[in-house]
Amino acid sequence: MKVYYDLQTGNVIVITPESAGVVVETTKEQDFKLYKALDDKVPDSVGMIQLQHGAHMLDRAEGGMIARVDLETLEPLFDYPPKPDEEPQPPAISFTSQIAELAAENQRLREENNTNQLALMELHMMLLNLMPDAG
Questions:
Q1: Continuous segment of H or E residues that includes residue 85
Q2: End-to-end alpha-carbon separation of the chain, Å?
Q3: 0.70 exceeded by pTM
Q4: DSSP state of 22
Q5: Among the residues of the chain, which ranges form H helices?
Q6: Distant-in-sequence contacts of 94-97, Cβ < 8 A, 24+ apart
Q7: pLDDT tens column, 9-65
Q8: In the chain, how many H helices and how many E strands?
């Protein structure tokens, strides 16, 4: 799947369909001829990111549609259908990216916790060595 977007705004112009199996991939030049929405664009004003097969499946299963591309990170930003009691939200990073960030933060906190536990054990041992024997 390729996402073509405006380099000034990040707004999506065309998303090519995802394909599987043995497929001959089209070039950017071929896509500009193939897709009407790209046909009238100046190629230098259009960016493209290519997503791996199956990328962002969770987001699409939740009804997410790629609306824009973050021009700094080149990550797709998704629009999700609002829940009945919610107002529409601005495009957001994908659930896949959010999960990866949370997993990394969880790992960092786990390592920090281990370090803190070791430091507490060392302090405990130092205090035991300072205390006089009770017997």
A1: none
A2: 75
A3: no
A4: S
A5: 28-34, 36-39, 57-61, 95-130
A6: 94/56, 94/58, 94/59, 94/64, 95/56, 95/58, 95/59, 95/62, 95/64, 96/55, 96/56, 96/58, 96/59
A7: 999 999 998 876 677 888 999 999 999 999 889 999 999 999 988 888 888 878 888
A8: 4, 6
- The helix/strand/coil state of 68 is strand
For residues 75 and 100, give the distance between their C-alpha atoms in angstroms, rounded to a whole number. 13
Helix extents (H) in 3-94: 28-34, 36-39, 57-61
Tell me the sheet residues that pair with 4. 14, 48
Amino acid identity of 51? L
- Rounded CA-CA distance 132/108 in Å is 39
